[in-house]
Design brief:
Elements lengths: L2 H12 L1 H9 L4 H6 L7 H10 L20 H11 L1 H16 L5 E5 L3 E7 L11 E5 L3 E5 L1 H33 L2 H27 L20 H7 L1
Antiparallel strand pairs: 1-2, 2-4, 3-4
Helix pairs in contact: 1-4, 4-7, 5-7
C-alpha cells in the first residue's frame, strides 16, 4: 500500500458505523446478520488521520507523507528546511555588504548545490576566502566555508527526513496489518451488501416480484410483461 491507499481506506472506514447501524434496523434477518462482520476501526482511522497527509504524494520514499505534529524529529527537520530561504537570504545580504557587490546572489541547483554567483565585471572584488566552483559565460560561481557547512546540514537533514518518514510509514503499515483479518471480513460483508443492494434496486426499478411456484406442471402468466423482451419483439 502507498500513502494514498491509506487515506482512501480511512475515508471508507469512517462511514462503516452508519452502515452497521442501518443494517441492525433492517427487517430481514440475513441483512441484520451481515452487520456482525462489520467491525469498528476507530484505532486505524485515528492512526491514519493523525499520521498521514490528506493529499500525500504517490512515492513513499520522497517525503511529504507524514503530518506535522506526528513526530517531533520530523517537525524539527522540516523546520530546518522551512528556515532555509531565510538563512540563504541572510547569507546573501551579508556577502553583498562584505564585498560591496550589489548584484551578488546565492543560488542552488541539484548538480552543483549552493553557490555564490558573481558577474565577470565584478570578479576583481571577489575576496580571497571565496572558493571557485563553476565558470559560466558571463559569471563565476563560488562557495564559502559558511555556505558549504549550511549545504551539508540541509542535505543531511533532507535525507534524514525522507528516511524517517518512510520508516514511520512502514510502522503505520505494520500496525494496520494487525487488523487484516477484520478488514477482510468487513470487506466481504460490504461486498455482499453491495450485491444485494444492486439486485434490490433493479427489482424496485422494474417492479420485479418473487413468483409462487407449485408442482402442477402448468405455466400460467397473468398480465406478465418483460420490458426488454417487448422492445426486442418490436
Amino acid at each position: 500500500a502507498n500513502a494514498r491507499d491509506l487515506v482512501a481506506l480511512k475515508n471508507s472506514l469512517i462511514i462503516l458505523p452508519k452502515i452497521k447501524n442501518l443494517l441492525l434496523k433492517a427487517d430481514n434477518y440475513y441483512i441484520r446478520e451481515l452487520s456482525n462482520d462489520i467491525y469498528n476501526f476507530d484505532k486505524i482511522i485515528k492512526l491514519i488521520d493523525n499520521g498521514i497527509m490528506n493529499n500525500p504524494p504517490l512515492n513513499v520514499k520522497e517525503g511529504g507523507i507524514i503530518k506535522d505534529g506526528f513526530d517531533p524529529e520530523i517537525d524539527d527537520l522540516r523546520n530546518i528546511s522551512k528556515k532555509g530561504k531565510e538563512i540563504i537570504s541572510n547569507i546573501e545580504s551579508k556577502e553583498r555588504e562584505k564585498t560591496g557587490i550589489s548584484s551578488l546572489k546565492v543560488g542552488y541547483n541539484k548538480l552543483y548545490g549552493y553557490y555564490i554567483e558573481i558577474t565577470k565585471p565584478n570578479l576583481h572584488m571577489v575576496p580571497d576566502y571565496y572558493i571557485r566552483k563553476q565558470t559560466l559565460i558571463g559569471s563565476e560561481r563560488f562557495i564559502t566555508q559558511e555556505l558549504k557547512e549550511y549545504e551539508t546540514k540541509v542535505i543531511s537533514s533532507e535525507e534524514r527526513l525522507k528516511t524517517l518518514e518512510y520508516q514511520l510509514f512502514l510502522n503505520i503499515l505494520s500496525q494496520l496489518s494487525e487488523e487484516t483479518n477484520k478488514l477482510f471480513q468487513t470487506s466481504h460483508s460490504i461486498a455482499v451488501l453491495d450485491f444485494l443492494s444492486s439486485l434490490a434496486i433493479v427489482a424496485k426499478r422494474h417492479n420485479y416480484v418473487k413468483p409462487t411456484i407449485d408442482n402442477n406442471g402448468i405455466i400460467d402468466i397473468i398480465e406478465g410483461r418483460h420490458p426488454v423482451l417487448e422492445r426486442t419483439l418490436k
